[in-house]
Amino acid sequence: MKAEDIINRINLIEKKAPLNGCLLPHNKTKFTPSGPKHNSTSNSFISSVKPDCSKLKGLEVSSVPYVDKHAEELRGEDIPLHVAFFTFLSYGVLLLVGYIKEFFSPPSSKERHREDYVPLFVGFESFYFRNVYRPISDCFCRPICGVPGERMTVLERTSHNNNWDHVLTGRKIDSINVGSYNYLGFAEKTGPCHDAAARAISSLGVAVASARTEMGTLEIHHELEALTAEFVGTEDAITFGMGFATNALNLPSLMGPGCLVLSDECNHASLILGLRLSGATVKVFRHNDCNDLERRIRRAIIDGHPRTRRPWKKVFIIVEGIYSMEGSICNLPRLIEIKKKYKAYLYVDEAHSIGALGPRGRGVVDYHNCDPKDVDILMGTFTKSFAAAGGYIAGSKALIQHLRMSSDAQHYASAMAPAVAQQIITSMSIIMGKDGTDEGQRRLRALKRNIAYFRKHMENRGFLLFGDPDSPVMPLLGLPKGPLSFLVRELSNRGVASVGVGFPATKITGARMRFCLSAGHDKQSLDEVLKHLNELGDVLCCKYNKHKGRADLQIEW
Amino acid sequence: MPKMWNVYESFQALLEAGPYHLAFEGFLLVWVIWLLVAAKSRPRPIKLTKKEEEQLLAEWTPEPLLSSAPDPEHPALNTRTVKGKLGHYVDLGSGPLLNLASHDYLRFSEHEGIETAALECLHQYGVGSCGPRGFYGTTEVHLALEQRLAEFFQCESCVLYSYGFSTMASAIPAYAKSGDVIFADEAVSFCIQRGLQASRSRIVYFRHNDSGHLQQLLEQQAIIDSKNPKKANATRRFLVVEGLYMNTGNICRLPELVELRHKYKLRLFIDESCAFGTLGPHGRGALDHFNIPMSEVDLIMGSLEYGGGSTGGFAAGTSFVVEHQRLNGLGYVFSASLPPLLAAAAKQMLEILEAEAKDLVPTLQHRASQLHSGLAVALPAKMCVSGSVISPIKHVAFKPSSGLTVKQQESALHRIVQEVEQRGVAVVVASLLRSKEVCPPPPSIRLVVNVRLTDAEITTAITAVADACAAVIEAEAL
């Protein structure tokens, strides 16, 4: 490969992920001019090949430069056929065994006091629960105690009746947390956020027992909404006490029968529920595929309503900023282009992207450097990056006024608790630098660095990571149910709290481990996670990345 | 000429075949022709040229995002802002007013013990839980609260939601699916209506608190069922009611409903949101009030945002029923869990309620009946107070005989609220999305009684409301 060619590629990578030098080819003679400066003798280099990287800290392995086959190619990669085959086979065997078992000893569906009733649960759902979910139910809902920060304490559970019930053993496992959505590390029990929240409880009480339109509007709610609008860059914003409800309860106020909605196939359940309640016609397009979207939107507008043959009243495109299961980032500039071309309205759910993306942490709009006014409805949640609860919708003044008048949650649900509102205000101010420090920028930089570090190392070790290189959510695909549960349990025993997701939350072959990084992680914790993953990946033979073998990657911390 | 011979042979064979055979072949021939012709006459998808397509796209003009410009006079855009705490007295900018507006029946929002518990939890857990229950959003506090709630309601199991509204809206569709029938009181709160809508079941509303009407509807259903027993055997029948109706202030007639449940094999879901902490010797709600065992209902739902003085909601019942929601309650599975500090506050609230319910509930009910009887006498003739006497929720509204339109009533009530405020009491017009409600109740001022009211305060409240009503009626000549 020609040197120029490589330099170009490297520049491309640098442009895509401007990461204060986290990714660097090591061959000094060729590359020092094109990349940020680095010190080849410092401790900040590690080699990623050997299983135990902690031993290799500080070692320098001279090598052929690492060239990343970037995003498009990696995203196109799919899990190998044999894995898909065995995944189906394992589910097939499980179901078969389940059916045989239940043929000989049918589950008792008798309820006390409800004799001769129509059974409450029938069909495949409960069969699936008994035979597929139950055996691995210990991998989910693990209780913790303490802050879900970058490290947390997981309470060990055990079961004496094949996972029907779980009991706490009393043992507490100190774990590295790569499961919580604590992207900017604001889940803290000390510091400015905590202190402000404590003051809010003392001065404003624990909760507000009234709806916003009745007596539940406190000054802090106005403050929160003004700050949110400023942060997102819109005229106004409205906030709600629950992120899920923000979608589910507001979509019906914006669209109704006669409207067309083009919804990404990986959209969150809250969006799907909101759409169902709204009565609009929904067409689903392939995940993150703008060409498919354009084809469908074009066809739909030309054809009109399939039953009444009338033109659509309004057309909406609903996408998410970062998809929590896929780790992919939506292509906002292209979406805005399509939206303008076809006169549609764009609804972006920034549940995961707000705070975690963009040079200023202002979500996917900031990341793609778009104008927030081009997105008609900007929705997001406060649960993740702000470590609070609730959600917001931001947009034009008229839109927000309309929602204030017609949103279910404004009229019937209690207002947001003051401590929660205060946590958002404080953390948002820190991200915006309003506290007078560069703490927010520091967190954003740390998150970026961690993402790049972890992803490069994982890929270099041969793991098949999905999603966008800049996304803090990283799914690891290609794990059938058995290996998935083994990995979650074993990581858990080794002190790494991670998340495994499988069917029905994903496709049958799409079962995955999901890693969520935080600004709070330090190199040591990430290295430890990588070490364990590397070992377990070898045991499970689940390193399917075709680019495996780039043994010589050098990554600066 | 072998070829000619072949044709000749075939022709001979054809002639030799019987008439039936010929008729059959003739029929086949006609059929083939018909198929070809019919296939042609079927409408073909119209293929538009690129130009035509572009023209259609250019011609299509969508409706604006908002159907009409928002009315700046709308009450929802002119809500009052509380300065400081929403406590027993509130400051709306003009000095302290007696709070008869917030649903804080037991004044737990100002209880020091609860505040301390929340603060202690904050010091240990921070604010947010940063994840749904499935993925490290379950803390010890959540588990403890669920267990305490289950004990409190004498149920096997309980699940905790992070938002009161979503509790009902998620719990109902977790069980009721399309093909099922749900009987519901027409006055059920809006969150239940959303849950019913999300279930896609057939919804049958019966007249408010009218078990006779419900029985009629059930009889009708029984007739439908007897015609198609196979379908009836797969149709689950639910009955959804509230223990204490937010929209009317009435207590539901639970004993009658329980009888009907037995007779018609209904699954009874009861929403105890408003009844929690206000009814029954233990403050457990309507079941407790009528002394009906928990086994008579299938699911108890409730919000912790009213009497509970916290945030979130719960659903309690047998493990068999309730645990299902941990995988199927949308608002449970896909939402971040309740901030631990709010769960800790709720847990502390339960401790206090358990210890003090025997004093708190009778006091509250006594205050409620004081206010009720006082208002019944003092209100002008055109207005009335409705709701059960012991219920902490009172609706002050115009009598149907007043002959006013809904709009007139609403504007008069908003005027009354302002007048009441000038007399030192904060009240609100019950906020409703009239166009979305299935059966919207008449406009009303919702008064909320709380346990800390004194005799003097109740007298003030009665005088303030009655005087304001009289003043507005006189000023507007209604």
UniProtKB/TrEMBL annotation, chain A:
Residues 174-533 form the Aminotransferase class I/classII large domain. One of its GO terms (biological process) is sphingosine biosynthetic process. The keyword Transcription does not apply. It is found in: Endoplasmic reticulum; Membrane. The chain crosses the membrane at residues 79-100. Its EC number is 2.3.1.50. Its cofactor is pyridoxal 5'-phosphate. Pathway: Sphingolipid metabolism; Lipid metabolism; sphingolipid metabolism. Pfam families: Aminotran_1_2 (PF00155). GO terms for molecular function: pyridoxal phosphate binding; serine C-palmitoyltransferase activity. InterPro entries: Aminotrans_II_pyridoxalP_BS, Aminotransferase_I/II_large, AON_synthase_class-II, PyrdxlP-dep_Trfase, PyrdxlP-dep_Trfase_major, PyrdxlP-dep_Trfase_small. Keywords: Acyltransferase, Endoplasmic reticulum, Lipid metabolism, Membrane, Pyridoxal phosphate, Sphingolipid metabolism, Transferase, Transmembrane, Transmembrane helix. It catalyses: L-serine + hexadecanoyl-CoA + H(+) = 3-oxosphinganine + CO2 + CoA. It is an enzyme of class 2 (transferase). Its main location: endoplasmic reticulum. GO terms for cellular component: endoplasmic reticulum; membrane; serine palmitoyltransferase complex. It comes from the Eukaryota. Belongs to the class-II pyridoxal-phosphate-dependent aminotransferase family. This is serine C-palmitoyltransferase. The lineage of its organism: Eukaryota, Metazoa, Ecdysozoa, Arthropoda, Crustacea.
Automatic annotation (TrEMBL), chain B:
The chain crosses the membrane at residues 20-39. The keyword Transmembrane helix applies. Its EC number is 2.3.1.50. Keywords: Acyltransferase, Lipid metabolism, Membrane, Pyridoxal phosphate, Sphingolipid metabolism, Transferase, Transmembrane, Transmembrane helix. Its cofactor is pyridoxal 5'-phosphate. One of its GO terms (molecular function) is serine C-palmitoyltransferase activity. Pathway: Sphingolipid metabolism; Lipid metabolism; sphingolipid metabolism. Residues 97-464 form the Aminotransferase class I/classII large domain. One of its GO terms (cellular component) is endoplasmic reticulum. PANTHER family: CLASS II AMINOTRANSFERASE/8-AMINO-7-OXONONANOATE SYNTHASE (PTHR13693), SERINE PALMITOYLTRANSFERASE 1 (PTHR13693:SF2). This is Serine palmitoyltransferase 1. It comes from Hyalella azteca (Amphipod). The lineage of its organism: Eukaryota, Metazoa, Ecdysozoa, Arthropoda, Crustacea.
